[in-house]
Design brief:
48% of the residues lie in helices and 15% in strands. The protein has 363 residues and is of the alpha/beta class. It has 3 domains: 168 residues, Rossmann fold (3-Layer(aba) Sandwich); 105 residues, 6-phosphogluconate dehydrogenase C-terminal fold (Orthogonal Bundle), CATH 1.10.3660.10; 70 residues, VC0802-like. A 7-stranded mixed beta sheet has the order 2-1-3-4-5-6-7, sandwiched between helices. The chain has a 4-stranded antiparallel beta sheet with strand order 9-10-8-11, with helices on one face. It binds 1,4-dihydronicotinamide adenine dinucleotide and 3-(4-hydroxy-phenyl)pyruvic acid (ENO). 1,4-dihydronicotinamide adenine dinucleotide binds next to helix 1, helix 4, strand 5 and helix 10. The site of 3-(4-hydroxy-phenyl)pyruvic acid has 8 residues, from loops.
Length: 363
């Protein structure tokens, strides 16, 4: 008999999970979204196999229910779930970026709840951005509630195994502490840098044109969904404030360094940061967010980027990011294209080797 999975919230994460879980031949995936257009689109795209009209009817048939909604909505849905007519063996789980508040709510439920957080994503949202391989090689954190037993955890792990994510069990508080450092607080920094640019721009409109390379790299995540980040920030408020306090101390240390303006100490500051950054497991399997960069030496001529991305599109190779490291007239520029999987990067390199005369290499 087929096992029934209900995914509530069919955006980037719910849609990607639905696509990935299709690999189980014995699983039926039902999908619900408060936005009827999204639900219809997910059904038409074949991401979900049924689109129930109400949550109550869908919940009745489900063996596993996944809340893939912004974390504020997830808390409300968990509360509503008390009134659903659920199977006795049902397991509830979520995909939210915060875990402590969710698990406090989970402890109030009679139903086993296993918190979940796939630590991969992007600044994009919505079902159109969903990708079946989004979670491959990424960590997927689980935080089981007191009512979830070992067998429940095994069932969920078995369901999620097809995502090819690396599943780890962690305490909710530890999860929120760590994600404040590597994910939540960096979002606030990105947003604040953009605010700073915006203020300057009033006096100096040209600054906007100059905001290339480094500024864009550092602030990409400021383009994320504001509703989602409102909820994350309010739920993990204390941990984020702790990081802000640390950051302000660090900024004071930096200010003293700048006021002293001593070249050696300033170089040391950058050198130490570079050493730590270069050692981060970013482009290898096992990273929080794995990306695989391919560098291509390109001449600075109009249309070059669309030519190269056009080849990738023809060969159905997906990219996650694209940027130019350096472009000056008469000088070669370096185009950096990031892929989610090493295999995609290999295929892209092969594609460029066959179809262009540009050198591409893994730096
Ligand atoms: N975007 C990312 O990179 C990541 C997000 N997450 C978490 O996953 C969850 C979902 O995020 P995304 O998919 O990016 O958001 P999204 O904005 O792409 O999709 C959320 C979907 O939920 C629907 N929705 C909202 N309230 C609902 C409700 N009460 N009932 C049913 N549907 C409802 C929306 O209409 C939308 O289609 C969030 O909790 C987020 O913190 C986790 C990992 C990565
Ligand atoms: O786009 C990025 O780099 C992200 O930071 C994506 C992301 C957003 C929220 C999460 O909980 C996990 C990953």
């Amino acid at each position: 008999m087929k096992s029934h999975v209900l995914i509530i919230g069919l955006g980037l994460i719910g849609g990607s999970l639905a696509k990935s879980l299709q690999r189980h031949k014995d699983v039926h995936i039902a999908g619900y979204d408060t936005d009827p257009m999204t639900q219809r689109k997910a059904y038409k795209m074949g991401i979900i196999q049924s689109a129930p009209p109400t949550l109550e009817s869908a919940a009745r048939d489900a063996d596993i229910i996944i809340f893939a909604t912004p974390v504020g909505a997830t808390l409300k849905l968990m509360e509503q779930s008390r009134f659903w007519d659920l199977k006795e063996s049902v397991i509830l789980t979520d995909t939210g970026s915060t875990k402590l508040r969710i698990m406090e709510a989970a402890d109030q439920l009679e139903t086993p709840f296993i918190g979940g957080h796939p630590m991969a994503g992007s600044h994009k949202s919505g079902v159109e951005a969903a990708k079946d391989l989004l979670f491959e090689n990424a960590f997927y954190i689980l935080t089981p509630s007191r009512k979830a037993d070992e067998e429940d955890v095994m069932k969920l792990k078995e369901l999620l195994s097809v995502t090819k994510a690396k599943i780890e069990v962690l305490a909710a508080e530890k999860h929120d502490y760590l994600t404040a450092i590597v994910s939540h607080f960096p979002h606030l920094i990105a947003a604040s840098l953009v605010h700073q640019l915006d203020k300057e721009e009033k006096e100096n409109p040209f600054v906007r044109q100059l905001a290339a390379g480094g500024f864009r790299d550092t602030t990409r995540i400021a383009s994320s969904n504001p509703e989602m980040w409102r909820d994350i920030t309010t739920q993990n408020n204390n941990m984020i404030i702790r990081q802000l306090d640390n950051w302000m101390n660090e900024m004071n240390r930096l200010k003293l360094l700048l006021e002293a303006n001593e070249p050696h100490s300033i170089q040391q500051y950058f050198k130490q940061a570079k050493e730590v950054r270069d050692e981060l497991p970013i482009a290898v399997s096992g990273a929080l967010f794995s990306v695989y960069d391919l560098h291509i030496d390109i001449p600075d001529v109009p249309g070059i980027i669309s030519e190269l991305t056009g080849y990738l599109a023809e060969e159905k190779i997906s990219i996650v990011n694209i940027r130019i490291l350096e472009t000056r007239e008469d000088v070669f520029g370096i185009l950096v294209i990031s892929f989610q999987r090493a295999e995609d990067r290999e295929r892209a390199k092969d594609c460029f080797d066959r179809r262009t005369s540009y050198d591409s290499y893994i730096s």
